[in-house]
C-alpha cells in the first residue's frame, strides 16, 4: 500500500495521536502502540492518514511539531512512562510512518496494452531496413496444440488493432468465424508512415528518382514477406502456412494485386479493399494482361470490396464522393478483365458497400472479408 501523510482532525474526544492505515487491523495495532506510550497525554490533534505516497518533508515537519508539543506532556507523565520507552518514541514513529516504500513522485500512467499480442522485430537483409511484426494469438492458443490459419494485414498501425477487435468479436461473441493468428506488417522503423507505404506498396516508380519521395518497391517488399516474414512466422508460431490470407486497403490492396499478378499462390485468399487501380495511369490493367499472356491459370480466391461513395458524381456536392478517380468502376472493370481470361483456378467476386467512402469503408469490408475467408466450421 502506497502511503501519504496528511494532517486532519480526528473524531475522538481525547485528542490522542493516532496512525490510521487502509487496513483496519493494522491501524488499531499502530494506535494501540501509541496509546501504550502515551495513555493519558492530551496532544495536538493530528491524525496521520496513510494513502498514496510518503511526503518526507511533510512528515518531518509533523514529527518536529509533534515532538515540541510532546515535551510539555512528557513533564507530566515522566513519572509514569519508562525512560527507555520515551527514548524509543521518535524511532518507533519513524518506523511506523515509513513502513511502506514510497512510490515515484511523478509516476507515469501505464500504457494500454492489447492482451495476447506481441511485437517482433525483424531486420530485412533484402530491403536493408528494420520492421516490426505485430502478432495477435487466438484465445485457445495457450491451451491447444493445433495450428491456425494466418491473416497478414498491411498498414498495421491502423489495421492491426481494428482487425483484431472485429475478429475477436466474431469468434468470442458470435462463433461466426474460425480462430486465426493475426500478423500486422508495420511500416519501416524510423520512416514516416506515408513515405514507407508509398515506397513499399507501389509496383512502379512514378517519381523517377526526383525529390525525397520514393515509390515502386513493391516487388522487393513482396520478396521480404515471402523469404523473411513467412519463415519467421512459421518458426515461431503454430501457424498453418498452407492457409495464408492477405488483407489490405487502398495502397495495401495495390500491393495485394501486385502479389496476385506475380505469385498468386503466395496467399490462399486475398481480401482487397478499395484497390488503388488508378495508380500510374492504371498500370495494373496492363500488368494483368501481361500475366494472362504468360500464364494459363491464376490459382487464387479474391474478394474485392469498395464503398459506394468511391466514385465520381459530377454536380453532386457531397464531400464523400471522390473528386477525380472512379474507383468503383475501376474495380468492376478489373474484375471483368480477369474473368475474361477464364483462369480455371481463379475465384473472384466484388461487392460495393453502400453509404461508405474511402475513409469509412475498412471496418465493414474487413468484417465481410473475415466472414468470407474464415467461416465457422
Question: Which features would summarize this protein structure in a list?
Answer:
alpha/beta; 2 domains; hydrolase; hydrolase activity, acting on ester bonds; AB_hydrolase_fold; disordered N terminus; single chain; 40% helix; Esterase-like; Rossmann fold; two-stranded parallel sheet; 377 residues; 10 strands
Strand content: 15-25%
Oligomer: single chain
CATH topology of the largest domain: Rossmann fold
Distance between the termini: 50 Å
Task: Give the low-pLDDT segments.
Answer: 1-57
- Please give the largest β-sheet: 8 strands, mixed
Sheet with the most strands: spatial strand order: 3-4-6-5-7-8-9-10
Name the overall outline.
globular
CATH architecture label name of the largest domain: 3-Layer(aba) Sandwich
Protein name: IroE protein
Region (Disordered): 1-23
GO molecular function, one term: hydrolase activity, acting on ester bonds
Family: Belongs to the esterase D family.
Care to give the gist of this entry?
With 377 residues, this protein is α/β, with parallel strands linked by helices. Helix content is 40%, strand content 17%. It contains 10 helices and 10 strands.
Amino acid at each position: 500500500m502506497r502511503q501519504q501523510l496528511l494532517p486532519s482532525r480526528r473524531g475522538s474526544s481525547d485528542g490522542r495521536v493516532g496512525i490510521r492505515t487502509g487496513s483496519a487491523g493494522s491501524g488499531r495495532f499502530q494506535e494501540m502502540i501509541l496509546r501504550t506510550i502515551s495513555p493519558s497525554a492530551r496532544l495536538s490533534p493530528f491524525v496521520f492518514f496513510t494513502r498514496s505516497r510518503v511526503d518526507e518533508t511533510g512528515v518531518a515537519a509533523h514529527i518536529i511539531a509533534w515532538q515540541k508539543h510532546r515535551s510539555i506532556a512528557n513533564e507530566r507523565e515522566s513519572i509514569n512512562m519508562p525512560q527507555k520507552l520515551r527514548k524509543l518514541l521518535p524511532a518507533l514513529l519513524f518506523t511506523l510512518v515509513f513502513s511502506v516504500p514510497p512510490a515515484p513522485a511523478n509516476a507515469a500512467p501505464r500504457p494500454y496494452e492489447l492482451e495476447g499480442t506481441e511485437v517482433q522485430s525483424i531486420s530485412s537483409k533484402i530491403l536493408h531496413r528494420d520492421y516490426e511484426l505485430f502478432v495477435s494469438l487466438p484465445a485457445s492458443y495457450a491451451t491447444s496444440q493445433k495450428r491456425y490459419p494466418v491473416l497478414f494485414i498491411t498498414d498495421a498501425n491502423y489495421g492491426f488493432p481494428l482487425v483484431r477487435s472485429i475478429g475477436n468479436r466474431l469468434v468470442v461473441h458470435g462463433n461466426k468465424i474460425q480462430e486465426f493468428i493475426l500478423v500486422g506488417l508495420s511500416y519501416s522503423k524510423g520512416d514516416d508512415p506515408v513515405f514507407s507505404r508509398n515506397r513499399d506498396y507501389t509496383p512502379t516508380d512514378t517519381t523517377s528518382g526526383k525529390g525525397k519521395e520514393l515509390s515502386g518497391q513493391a516487388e522487393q517488399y513482396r520478396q521480404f514477406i515471402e523469404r523473411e516474414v513467412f519463415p519467421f512466422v512459421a518458426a515461431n508460431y503454430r501457424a498453418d502456412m498452407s492457409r495464408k490470407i492477405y488483407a489490405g486497403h487502398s495502397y495495401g490492396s495495390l500491393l495485394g494485386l501486385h502479389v496476385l499478378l506475380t505469385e498468386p499462390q503466395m496467399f490462399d485468399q486475398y481480401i482487397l479493399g478499395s484497390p488503388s487501380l488508378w495508380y500510374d495511369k492504371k498500370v495494373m490493367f496492363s500488368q494483368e494482361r501481361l500475366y494472362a499472356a504468360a500464364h494459363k491459370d491464376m490459382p487464387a480466391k479474391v474478394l474485392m470490396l469498395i464503398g459506394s461513395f468511391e466514385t465520381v458524381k459530377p454536380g453532386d456536392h457531397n464531400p464523400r464522393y471522390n473528386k477525380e478517380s472512379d474507383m468503383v468502376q475501376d474495380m468492376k472493370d478489373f474484375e471483368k478483365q480477369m474473368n475474361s481470361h477464364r483462369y480455371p483456378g481463379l475465384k473472384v467476386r466484388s461487392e460495393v458497400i453502400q453509404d461508405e467512402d474511402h475513409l469509412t469503408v475498412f471496418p465493414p469490408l474487413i468484417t465481410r472479408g473475415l466472414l468470407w475467408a474464415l467461416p465457422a466450421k
